[in-house]
Design a protein that fits this description.
The protein is α+β, with helices and mostly antiparallel strands. Helix content is 44%, strand content 14%. The protein folds into two domains: 188 residues, A middle domain of Talin 1; 133 residues, Cathepsin B, Chain A (Alpha-Beta Complex), CATH 3.90.70.
Length: 362
């Protein structure tokens, strides 16, 4: 569900933005505090109109926040008083280290946290929240009414709702208010709604409610667990239509040899861009948590350096991963795919070294 439109403007600055961001360590993780204060206030502009004020703006694409679900969650948590930044959410969930590839068809949802092997049941216990996921079809009128009521209830208590496809295409955004019983006010990566609340123009393919706030588990323990998960995912041997880790990267490279039609272009582009974003988050996350490992921090730092080299490799190979608008007719030349295959092979070698370093830190 985390998709990037093939626009020339976004394509032009993705390399520059990510090149700057990957080398910058994130701020240290906030330690649990005795009291967390929400900064959200409920604003009632007129009867029947309610919105949550105090939600930060979305940064948008190519600014180190390309996993739209994680950035939306970051904003909701920050507004609630529990500040856990994007890089830590990516690390705790495993998304910073996960590569997923669907072998039965080219799938733009490869990098989505809910697609294939979902990560929500790993992430939410690690951050101390419970959640409810609802998938309601637009033609199911009874369920639609229930969803409208549930969203209004959450907004009335000061908690925005995460939703996919509320302003198409199918990226994650936030429902931050409502205007009457059937109109939602949203923040989205699309529709110029990053900083201002706009009415929804699409029906959500999924909605996620933060339902119950718990005490946050010891972050240090959760960091250790995330590294064990990163290793396990890369070494995953299981087959099926959704591959994870090294097997996914190998299958991706193999699939590039003979794509059947143009459907591969955007899925390939978005999976590649998301891989850059994920590994950039991995670099910053590892440098943030290295102190947790005491004398073994050297191995965490080395893993971060290998992932950083991977990001730079992928950025250098970006010209060989065309967006749809650059080839409006037919398939890109085979030379592009051949060069991308070589880049992915080099990325695998760097990830192998990174994971070996993570193993030494255990």
């Amino acid at each position: 569900m985390t998709r990037l439109r093939s626009s020339s403007r976004r394509f032009a600055f993705v390399t520059l933005a990510l090149a700057v961001l990957t080398g910058c360590p994130a701020k240290p993780a906030d330690q649990p505090t005795v009291r967390e204060r929400s900064r959200v206030s409920i604003v009632r502009d007129r009867p029947g109109d309610v919105r949550c004020d105090g939600i930060g703006p979305l940064r948008g694409f190519a600014k180190g926040r390309d996993c739209t679900f994680m950035h939306c969650l970051e904003l909701v948590l920050e507004a609630s008083g529990r500040k856990i930044n994007y890089d830590e959410l990516m690390g705790l969930s495993g998304m910073a280290f996960r590569t997923q590839f669907r072998t039965d068809h080219w799938d733009v949802g490869n990098p989505d946290p809910l697609a294939g092997e979902p990560v929500l049941d790993i992430l939410f216990p690690a951050i101390g929240w419970e959640y409810e996921l609802r998938i309601v079809k637009q033609e199911d009128y009874a369920e639609k009414d229930a969803l409208y009521r549930a969203v209004a209830k959450s907004i009335d208590t000061g908690i925005p709702v995460l939703a996919a496809n509320i302003i198409p295409p199918e990226d994650w955004g936030l429902i931050v208010g409502y205007r009457g019983p059937r109109t939602w006010l949203c923040r989205s990566y699309n529709g110029d709604a990053e900083t201002s609340d706009k009415p929804a123009t699409g029906w959500p393919t999924a909605t996620l409610f933060l339902t119950s706030k718990k005490s946050r588990p010891d972050p240090r323990k959760m960091h250790f667990e995330s590294i064990r998960r990163a290793i396990e995912m890369f070494d995953r041997k299981a087959g099926g239509s959704n591959l994870i880790g090294k097997k996914a990267l190998e299958a991706w490279a193999e699939a590039l040899r003979s794509p059947k039609d143009r459907t591969y272009i955007h899925a390939n582009f978005w999976t590649y861009v998301s891989l850059i974003d994920a590994r950039g988050a991995a670099v910053r996350y590892l440098r943030m948590i290295a102190k947790d490992y005491g004398s073994r921090d050297l191995h965490i730092g080395m893993a971060a350096d290998y992932y950083d080299s991977e990001v730079r490799l992928l950025l250098d190979g970006m010209n060989n991963v065309p967006a749809e608008h650059t080839f409006p007719v037919g398939l890109p030349p085979a030379e592009y795919r051949s060069k991308q295959i070589d880049t992915l092979r080099q990325a695998i070698a760097l990830e192998e070294k990174a994971v070996e370093s993570l193993k030494k830190a255990q």
